[in-house]
Amino acid sequence: QYSDREELTLLKSGVRGFCTTDMNSALIQKVLNEVEKGQVWVRRTLIPTLIEEFSKQAKGAINVSSSARHS
Fold it and tell me: Model-level pTM?
């Protein structure tokens, strides 16, 4: 199992889903089907880390945009 930061790094590099060794074959097939349809599959416990990361990026984009207007 990867840490939250490791999974976040992998997602940024293009990974679309994660399976763990304790998943049954039906769930693995569901993950594969969803990823094939363009969805992302991550652990629920990773969601707060993703939201935090998006929030940081959004704040950075707002600050950059605001700085560019005041230049």
Answer: 0.70
Identify the bridge partners of residue 41 per DSSP, sorted by sequence position.
Answer: 17
Question: Could you report the per-residue pLDDT of 41-60, keeping only the tens digit for each?
Answer: 999 999 999 999 989 888 87
Euclidean distance between CA atoms 15 and 50, whole angstroms: 14
Nearby residues of 10 by Cβ (< 8 Å), 6 or more positions away? 2, 18
- DSSP helix/strand/coil, 24: coil
DSSP annotation string for 25-67: HHHHHHHHHHHHTT--B--GGGHHHHHHHHHHHHHHHHHHHHH
pLDDT of amino acid 1: 81
